Amino acid sequence: MAELVFFSGTMDCGKSTLALQMDHNHRARGRAGLIFTRLDRAGTAVLSSRLGLATDAVEVDEGLDLWDVVVTALTGGRRVDFVICDEAQFYAPAQIEQLARVVDELDIDVFAFGITADFRTQLFPGSQRLIELADRVQVLQVEALCWCGRRATHNARIVDGAMVVEGEQVVVGDTEGGAPGLVEYEVLCRRHYMRRMNSKAAHAAALSADVLPLELDACALPQL
Ligand SMILES: [Zn+2]
């Protein structure tokens, strides 16, 4: 019985590496797959990992019907035993429903990989729909770490070195131009996310205190 599985994690937890590994493992067993991604760090229509591996993929543009893509591949004589979806947090809820239909009506496994929540700690629409519809949600066990060494569970957006908690939901990081400032992302533990203490702020605080502010007393919750 085919399944819709959502592999979730923070940034930097190796989701894309696992997606590539899963593709490799299935192909090594003679199975053929389709790979989808959206807004990959390496550009359009490619699935890449931070470890340097990459493969071609179908770019999930807004409005693309994933059910149609799979059916067209099948009717064109292509074998599709499984579907891998990277950056699934960026897919529209309707596209997630198309994936569920692929599982149910075509009996094809769909493995989706994505970040659950954005830099404001709110669920991405695609991830929310996956949590609602998936047969299984699997939290990835390769743990990203906060600068303090705790398990990182939250994605922080950093603009020009300072953490922000408001703004557009999707701004692709590590790019200059467009929106004002350099946008980067950093994974943090909840404690340091809530205190808006990214690594740069922690080091700045350390300069005045001689030690890293590992103790929570050393970094107060922001006044709301
Ligand atoms: Zn921390």
UniProtKB/TrEMBL annotation:
Q: How does it assemble?
A: Homotetramer.
Please name the InterPro entries in this protein's record: P-loop_NTPase (IPR027417), Thymidine_kinase (IPR001267)
Entry protein name: Thymidine kinase
**Catalytic residues, chain numbering:** 87
**What is the primary gene name for this protein?**
tdk
The species this protein was found in:
Nostocoides veronense
Q: Which domain of life is it from?
A: Bacteria
Q: Which family does it belong to?
A: Belongs to the thymidine kinase family.
Tell whether Ligase is among the UniProt keywords.
no
Q: A Pfam family this protein belongs to?
A: TK
